[in-house]
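batch job 7 of whatever, protein = DNA polymerase I
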Amino acid sequence: MTDIIDGAALDGSVIPSAEPRTPPPGDPHLILIDGSGYIFRAYHALPPMTRPDGTPVNAVFGFAQMLEKFLNQHSSSHIAVVFDSARQTFRQEIYAAYKAHRPEPPEELIPQFALIREATEAFGVAQVELPGYEADDLIACYAKAFEAEGGRVTIVSSDKDLMQLVRERVIMLDPIKQKPIREPEVLEKFGVPPNKVAEVQALAGDPTDNVPGVPGIGIKTAATLLTEYGDLESLLARAGEIKQPKRRELLLTHAEQARISLRLVTLDCDAPLPLPVETLVARSPEPVRLAAFLAENNFRTLLARLGLGDGAPPNRPRPVAAPLADEPADPLEIPFGNYDCVTDLETLKTWVAKGRAAGVIGLDTETNSLDALAADLVGICLAVAPGKACYIPLRHAGADLLTESPAQIPAEAAIEALRPLLEDPAVLKVLHNAKYDLEVLANPKNGGIQVAPLDDTMMISYALEAGAHGHGMDELSQLHLRHKPISFDEVTGTGRARIPFAHVPLDRATAYAAEDPDVTLRLWHTLKPRLREARALALYEQVERRMIPVLAAMEQAGVKVDGQELARIGTDFGERLVVLEAECHRLAGRAFNVGSPKQLGEVLFDEMGLKGGKKGKTGAYSTDASVLEDLAAQGNPLPRVVLQHRQLAKLKSTYVEGLTAQIAADGRVHTDYSLASTSTGRLASTEPNLQNIPIRNEEGMKIRRAFVAEPGHVLMSADYSQIELRLLAHLAEVPTLREAFEKGEDIHSRTAAEIFHLDPANVDKEARRRAKTINFGIIYGMSAFGLGGRLGIPAGEARGIIDAYFAQYPGIRNEMERLKDEARMKGYVLSPFGRRLWIQDIGAKDPVRRAGAERQAINAPFQGGAAEIIKRAMVRTPRALREAGLKTRMLLQVHDELVFEVPEAEVEAAGATIRKVMEGVAELRVPLLVEVGQGASWAEAH
């Protein structure tokens, strides 16, 4: 069975309808559905939904869909959904820490629990729960009781804890994989038969539930030990016979902990049955009751599919205009298309009047370039309501030089007619990726229109679901409106056959262009109300929306680049590349193309005989950076020199030649900031990408020398000091870390002294370097293998260092485990300021993908928190500078650093203002520290 949402599987596949299957007479069969698994999958699979009274119902709707589909495809003589009653059970009396670290359910889910129970009964299915017991215990009890009466049992769940119940007449059905789980599957997963699963879990422990187990014993080792010694008690009694010293000591030391763990993981098959078995008989739902439930919650899709009409109970008609939980409100159901092409001034004035009367309009531009600062305006698109949109062509031409241009309003006249509407403070302009359109319209050649106020549906979506999916208009339209917009390629063609948009016939141009503001306005109606429900309204209003004009101003300003200095750097890099290439040839014993991975692989592995060569599908050896780094770590000089050559060649092509090509007519480079391309809230920059200029090495500093101030000005750098470590100290309970920041101590030296047990006066550079690598590696969830690679030590030694680190700072480990649990439970983690950071692959079966997602869950709040802090500074600093009467302007944002161009006379005042704003944008448990420097170039400002 595959989980179904609205007729489609959660994995995106379409499930064919199935005829109900009736069990053979005399074949008693009980299906027990693990309710918690259904609830949380439904909650995370669907976006927020509410019924008219404001009650959230997305989990209720998803649960009802899955239950209806299951009942349609499976039948049995008896069936029940089993729920957890409360978090406190008899297991907390055994071990107080059991599940103590689990976060509370999301607030939006809590009111849905009761409705889900109503849904179960409305479908005619018995629901079972019992205070003091977990659902798993009740499943065990009913399985035992039904089996004793000669019946067979199917448990619908993927919960590994239930695998201990599998036997000849009791099987499991994985609801995601549609895969039965019998004894061979249990043996494959645990290495033991089902009756030994609990003992394996008792030894291995379970961090998800805080079952302690025996440290250092995993599932594979536990299975081996139980196979050899028979059972847990025999193993613990004979632990002194074990040959491996560490394993022997662990079992002897933690024997009682293993016994407690066994009591925690063993399901109670003798708990009282809340309902007699005979009351679980499968029955058809009562149509009136089911229809009333679906209608009350506005689940129209289910009502229609089940043939129940609108399901309104007698004397309680549904309001005609009520929004529906599972479908867009009626205004959004209006068909797309049939848009107007406005080619005369009087008609345009009519549309302007409609827009001012509406008070909220969709807005979009059509241009001849993706570079907003260089683009010419080809047309403007408006939507005054869903389905009511127009395209205003301004600079369309004929299909070729011989074809007369189509009739259209002169661009200048149209822009002047539109200006009052687009600059009207009483009309909200809704755009998608508003920064682009703002820059296009603000360009004097396009009218110099200052669009305000505005909303941006891209940023609304990003504030709601960063990391959950992309935020392009087409993707959001298909996700939220179930509508696929016309693509650019459909109207302009592709490849050599592509024509400029200005040459597209007006009928096709209108169908494409006017659809965009229509889609944008519908997305606004759909997404904007969700901000409050998701507690993301303040994030959007106070940070994300305010960032749009701030970044537009930064991009328009740009930063001055010294072309002559770049040329000198290019010459220097070129000469050094020649030297490095000659050194590569000397070490190889012959000349070869250093830039050719194929030739390099042949030299390294065929001719020099180095170990570790692996060929790809093309038959060539892999020579990527990780391979070369491994070879270099083994002491081979050629791979190290090749890495140096590659880095220098990349810097030369990207930042010397690339920057030179991007210097505009004003002598400045204008980078493009992406607001919604990362999963953590961080900004990204392109053309050029200023985020990847090396910070610490000599080559990166040389490139920064080419970024200079205008005459009479200096560049000022304001950089947050160790912001992610400060966020770690803020979130995790680490008193010594907080104390070090409060006292202004060198945090890496303090860490080295504590984890390596050194006198602070004896911490040398090497110890501090190791501590620094560990401090930052921990934030990124670095493994022992990764840390060993960074420190140049074996993974075993690195594991010892990590263990020592967590022993010294247990609060950090607890915080990391909390974050992983939060991601598993909710599908996202929260930044320190409440942004939901969605974690893909947190439930992946592939252990590599899942481990990567867990590292992302650990790191995301720190990266996300740092991003929000610097964004807050960016929206506040320009205003603070203006209010101080200063002409200083913000030019660049790179990671945790802001770069300003400051008149020489304002250096002291600007530095004080910038530092005050940046250090005061957030209240953490440790102080924020900003380091400010200035100079004639970006390099000197550091």
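notes: The first helix runs from residue 35 to 45.
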